[in-house]
Structures are given as C-alpha cells and as structure tokens.
Amino acid sequence: MNLFDEVDEHASPLSPDERLGLRLPDITYRHELNQAEFDNIAKGAAWAWRRRGGLLAEAFVIELHRRMFGDVWSWAGTFSRENKRRIGVDSYEIPVRLRAALDEARAWRDYKSFPVDEIAVRFHVSLVSIHPFPNGNGRWSRMMADLLAVRLGAERFTWASAGEPELLSQQGNTRARYMAALLKAVGHDVSDLIAFARS
Question: Is residue 12 included in any domain, yes or no?
C-alpha cells in the first residue's frame, strides 16, 4: 500500500484514546466497534419503541442513550464532562439546556406550533446542538426525533436512526448532505433537513 491508496476507515485499529470507556476489551478495529454499537443501538431502539409515556422527560432521554450504548461504553447515559468540544455546549450548561429543549418540544407539540415533521426535526437539532453525551449524540437524537414523529402520528423518518453506516462514514456524500442540512437547520432553516430525513 502506498500513500495514495484509499484507506478503509472501518478496518483501522482503534487508538488507546478511542478505547477509553470501552466495555468490550476484545474490540480492536473500527468495524468491530461499529457492529457492537449497531447491535446495542438495535436493543435500545426496541426498548424505546415499547415505551408508552415520558418521551419528553429528562429521565427518558438519558435512559435511551444508556440503553443504546451501555453494552459498549461505560459512559453511556452520562453527560459529558469535557468543555473542549467543537460541537455542543459546555458541560455545566447541559442539564439546563436539555430541560429547556424538552420544554420547548412539549410546547411545540401542545400548541401545534409546526407540522409534525418540523417539530421532530427541530427537536433533533436542539438535542444534537447541546451534544450532551461524550459520543453517539447524532444517532441518539435521530432516534428521539423518530420516536417523537411517530408519537405525533407521522411515519418514522427514513434516515435510519439505528446507526446506519452511511451517516457514520466520513467518506461518501450521505453524511456530507446530512451535515450540510444540519448546519442550515442550526441557522433556523430546517427545510433541507426535513427533506433529508424523509429521503
């Protein structure tokens, strides 16, 4: 292999930093981690779809993250303590901002402020902007949006919130389209993100 050969990101070994908090010591490669997370996310999703109430409660959102990632990561369901992040708010702001996002989502729902898809997508943007957990925030917040959309009478989004490889991959255009739509949504134009979620 030479310098210009394309590297398969899924076949790369995990660095010691990437393994911090990993509950499964036999995992050494990215593809093994992705599979373990995918399996855990499926279990967490099955739990969430069986729940009937409390979706917009802090206890539910924390428990969902724990159930989606807790078989793989020791920090699952625990707010980030790191303040040197590119995305999200400082750790001391997380609980307050999360409660505000949940309150806002309840108000959008109760007052029918937007169409259902827009309420769910705006909720996703609020959650992913806070970035409360050390990792898994995108997958978790897409699952929360799916759950909210269905509870409000819409179909589940087609962005496959259970951790699909295209959205996790740094290569290819699916993630690039998602990130561009998300950036636009952070600027309060959610039209592209709704279209992406339904594509």
Answer: no
Cα end-to-end distance, the chain, whole Å: 37
What domain range includes position 164?
28-197
CB 56 within 8 A of CB 72: no
Please write the tens of the pLDDT for every residue from 54-68.
999 999 999 999 999
* Sequential DSSP letters for 156-173: PPSS-TTT-HHHH-SSSH
Question: Considering the domain boundaries, does residue 20 fall inside one?
Answer: no
CATH number where 174 lies = 1.10.3290.10
How many domains does the chain fold into?
A: 1
- Ordered DSSP codes for 53-99: S-TTSHHHHHHHHHHHHTTTBTTTTS-------SSS--GGGHHHHHH
* pLDDT attached to residue 85: 64
In a domain, 155, yes or no: yes
Look-up of token digits 């499926």: 42
Burial grade of 73 (CB within 10 A; 0-12, 13-18, 19 or more): buried
Per residue in 42-91, pLDDT (tens digit) is: 999 999 999 999 999 999 999 999 999 999 999 999 999 987 667 899 99
Neighbours of 135 (CB within 10 A): 18
What pLDDT is stored for residue 171 in this prediction?
Answer: 66
